[in-house]
Design brief:
Layout (H helix, E strand, L loop, with lengths): L1 H22 L12 H21 L5 E7 L4 E8 L2
Antiparallel strand pairs: 1-2
Length: 82
């Protein structure tokens, strides 16, 4: 329980600090830089979370066919399982 409250407290502190500093300046705002390494980490962490969520859920099997006029294809058969 304590480990979940620490990020919440930091988030509240950051928002409070931004509110105070932006009300005292002429051009309020925030600048941030993110590196490619941080973006790659975010993608990796996000994919792990999505994979874990999909393993926990039971998705139904889907099959059928559909006409795709905008691609100028008469019909497409599809079959999704597990």
């Amino acid at each position: 329980m304590c480990t979940k409250t620490i990020p919440v407290l930091w988030g509240c502190f950051l928002l409070w600090n931004l509110c105070l500093s932006s009300s005292q300046t002429i051009y309020p705002g925030i600048k941030a830089r993110i590196t490619q390494r941080a973006l790659d980490y975010g993608v990796q962490a996000g994919m792990e979370i999505i994979e874990r969520m999909l393993k926990e859920k039971n998705l139904p099997d889907l099959s059928g066919s559909e006409s795709l006029e905008f691609l100028k294809v008469d019909y497409v058969n599809y079959n999704f399982s597990k």
